[in-house]
Amino acid sequence: MFKLFRFLKPYWWQVLILVFATGAQVWTTLQLPALMAGIINDGIVPGDIDYIWQTGLLMISIALISAVAALTSSFFSARIGTGFSRDIRAAVFTKVLNFNILDVKDFSTASLLTRTTNDVSQVQMVTIMILSMMLRAPLFLLVSIIMAIQTAPDMSWIIMIGAMAILGSVILIMSLVIPKFKVFQGLVDKITLLTRENLTGLRVIRAFNNQKLEKKKFDKTNRELTKLLIFIDRALELQNPLINIIFNGTTLLCSWIGISLLSKDFAYLGNMTAFAQYVTHVMMSFLMMSILFVMLPRANVSAGRINEILGKASKITWPKKTKGIPGRTASVEFKNVDFSYPGAEEKVLDNISFKALAGQTTAFIGSTGSGKSTLVNLVPRFYEATSGEVLINGLSIKDYQREDLMNRIGFVPQRGMLFSGSVKSNIKFGAPSASDEQVRKAARIAQAENFIEKLPDKYNSHIAQGGANVSGGQKQRLSIARAICKNPDIFVFDDAFSALDMKTDAKLRLALKEVTETAVVLIVAQRINTIKDAEQIVVLNNGKIVGKGKHLELLNKCKVYQEIVRSQLSDKEYALELKTAEKLGGKNA
What we know:
The structure is a single chain. The protein is built from 21 helices and twelve strands. It is an alpha/beta fold. Strand 11 (536-541) and strand 12 (544-549) form a beta hairpin. Helix 1 packs antiparallel against helix 2, helix 19 crosses helix 20 and helix 19 (551-557) crosses helix 21. The radius of gyration is 36 Å and the shape is elongated. The N and C termini lie far apart (74 Å). The model has no long low-confidence stretch (mean pLDDT 80).
């Protein structure tokens, strides 16, 4: 928890005001019992009305000062606490944004959501309590004890009994609930995970009629969470009756001892009354601290989970400035690149070497699990190659500053991802300063113009979160338009044409040539028709390159490629393609 207090630095002057206001509140509040004792002993007993009026007006003035100090303290504690939590939430969000894919996998998505929301809220609540109670309660406690002893030393032992009783009850409750807080946060993560899975996979769940199974899984975790919450709440609820018993018992003891002393000296009445009020302040201070001590362990668990994210060392480090000067001509080169996931024994990619040049299309094809998507994910450095080297424009990607590298790449993932906003804002996502003409051009090349013009507000039409209000093909086309609008050196299409029909696919690839004359184009695809015109086709099988060349060359010499083509064409079409390839082979011979 204390590690997070570094976020309080911008609020140091507000903390000083808070400390001053809290001190003023404590001092003024604790003057009232002494003044009340004076009214009883020096005003009521001897019948001095003037003294009663003077002291009474003084008490009203002090009470008003105390109220202003209390309001100031509450205002600044809430202001500092909310600003503190806002800064932590922003820091966590920024840290997660800078995670690479492998870093994100160390935490579940549900856990990251819970840590950014629920855990930060827990820390905020306890921080406000610390700011409002941690200084006030000890001050009240210390000053009240001193003034109580000065007022009625014969009764001071009562405070010690009450304090020991409260301390024992707090230790009992904390020993019951502290071990449960970490379990509680884990179950909250699981609830978030199940909820997210069911919302995103709703169509699949309904298609397979598995609502009962998913409800059963959710109910099981929900029951565990409910059972744990009941236990924690019951344990915490023990605090109120225990504190009430101690508080009332202490008050009763004060009255009993005070009355016995009063029978010997009636002038002791004012002192007894003041002492009872000081004891009340002592008990209330212990009560406030006990509440804080019960809440603090839960917040400490949340703070630990937040610090785990903030202290996470990324598996990929970036230089602050690009080292060296990249070439002016766009290119992508893999030199003996291997890749395997952390902890995995087998390589996903094994000794990958190729070079993709500007103005040319390099396509990757292979069976499922052959490593195509992993390979292109190495280009923007979403993953780090286990060995070997990846060069962009002749410079190793390890030498690029993050922003410099990303500005050179237009990446279109397998699943087109759209953000809540408008059609225009999604296309301009990678190029915020793009003009309306550039946006329309990108949409035209991506074959998205026709359906955009049919929308009610055209380019200003609303896009729901995740693109839920557009089809899969429309989503892909908008994602492609976003990459085109960025006008990068390197286009990476990771199976980005899969949701397009053959006609739209062909039109889009033809239109792309308009903006890729000086750019490298990398395409991962499953369909032969998408890649057959590529200048270079790389065939992958079990993470290895088993063929490299143009369509007809590979059809003539690569068995894996032949099998892929045969699976997608009719016998007649395949025979024709094979015959053409054989003629090419004969000419080359």
